[in-house]
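Field guide to reading this record: the first block holds the primary sequence, the second block holds the structure written as discrete tokens, and the final block holds curator observations. Each block starts with its own label. This record concerns nicotinate phosphoribosyltransferase, catalogued under organism Taeniopygia guttata.

BLOCK 1 — SEQUENCE
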Amino acid sequence: MSPCLHPRVPLCCHPRCPLVLPSPCPLVLPFPLSPCRHPRVPSRCHPLLLPTPLFPLPPLTPPLLPVSPPLSPCPRPAMAPLADLYQVSMAYGHWRAGRHRAPAAAELFFRRPPFRGSFALGAGLAEGLRGLRAFRFSAADVAYLRSVLPSTIDDAFFDYLATLDASEVTVTAIPEGSVVFARVPFLQVKGPLLVVQLLETTLLCLVNYASLVATNAARFRLLAGPDVKLIEMGLRCAQGPDGALSASRYSYIGGFDCTSNILAGKLYGIPVRGTIAHSFIMSFRSLEEVQARLPPRAGGDPVDLAGLAVSWLQRVCDLLRTPPGKANQGELAAFVSYAVTFPCDFQGLLDTYCGLEIMLDPPWICVPVVINAFPARARSGLPNFCAVALALHQLGYQAIGVRLDSGDLAQQSKEIRGVFQACGAHFQVPWFGTIPIAVSNNISEQSLEEFGREGSEIDMIGIGTNLVTCPLQPSLGCVYKLVEVNGSPCLKLTEDEEKMTIPGMKTIYRLYDAAGHPFMDLMALEEEPSPSAGQELGIRVLGRLGETTKVIPTTVELLHRTYFRDGQVCEPLPSLPEVRTHAQVSLNLLSPAHRRLHEPQPYPVCPALPTSHWHTPGNATGFGGLSKATTELLPDPSCSHSQVAVTERLHQLFQELSQGSH
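BLOCK 2 — STRUCTURE
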């Protein structure tokens, strides 16, 4: 790897890839740098950068680059080595047997819904397509494989690996950001058997965590509601720089509004936000350390903001009935310094110092109850912030918010809102009562549930560890299973019924009820006729194979689209904000029973029964058409001419295995 020839766009050509630059380059970045011959074409190299952010945040500098749906033509590192070693070992087995070009198909799905819910958000499709475009073994990759594989491997196999790409691969998928359910294929991959096999680990790596963190973010969004702003701030606790960038990107898809991660903002165009840390406030001791002259916003001679803040502190403390001498002077100096530096974006962190007593009567504070040792009205930061914010207001500026990072956040937010409203009314500053209140401090799903139960005045929530590390479920558990080789369906048969696979390439339909809610996903063979709205369908739900049900959908949606063919992306890729919007629409379409986070109603996924069970004439055999292939895999004369659905056959095989008959 060599440094980019254009240092102002060093990341323009490269997908996210967890590599570290070698010496002598002084930087350590989470992706490689290579020469770029397009110094002024960042839009060609950034396939998924965004247009103007959806939210009214300060403009980013430099301006965001435009969206470019086609994948970049710039050189990319070979992605084929992003695989487990046994994939290459099996590839050699296929090559040696002369089966490497046999047509094959595989499906990527998860077996159980994450977080004990009913759904997941499918994510990582765009990066998966980038991986397909970059799928190849470089000369250095082939040389390395020679060094780690057995010396008995034929040299011609390595020559063959050097020619591999994904030009014969076809990928169909559910659009990124869609709600996906257990057992339903998110991706379907067709191509030569050897290549389909080699793609397994790469695609799982690019989809598994992406979908997990997007789903986790969606759960936080559902708990927070549509009006509270959510900021992802997990960079420092993520699993390395690669995990941090993925978390920023996919939590945005899941419904977060912004990120604290500067690099993620630069690469993906996600709005970037930040507040102020305790260390900044702790670094000040007195107002003598501050250069505090600030001109009024309307123009004029600079004013001593520190002196103005001291005078306002006296007035605020009189209102709050607390001695101004108990407010921490170093904290006041820090606030003044920050306000002079960012007069239009002043914000305060209120809980660095505690111990102040405030005696403010109702109705301004409706619930003046001490919840912990240091309630909000005992924070030195509260009168100090009010004093500096009012001083700024006198000069024509407006503070943008405060943050709390400890204690009972819901209760403190209500107390702080009361103080803001009291100051706004007393000093005739109407906007003061609506100053946004942000909170952080190891926020979890439980925290948001408590905010909802207790009520709060919280406007923004910063979430880090419990978002990016997904502690409630560290992996989505996606699997990639072969379902067809040489036109014949194939399956995995095991005593663990959950791990059985459903053979054959399938077409996936989503059925909607009259209220517009999806109520079932239907899997049918590719050659079968499509179900239609108003048609009565016979189905059996996975997990309840002995029960036959008839349903009549109001609307039928074909879920999969073809995204990759002949080595190229053949479907325009949406921008990140468009994926985010699609995800929120998909979530909102779910019925409350399926969308709730605790003990949701299971979402049914059903293979189609033979079309004789449908009230539309047809000669197709439904999933019973797989019975012959199933019989070839596990001989059973009683099934050789039946039109039984494949789920019924799998259920029968499982029962036989459980009883020891095989």
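BLOCK 3 — OBSERVATIONS
Residues 193-224 form the longest helix (32 residues).
The longest strand covers residues 103-110.
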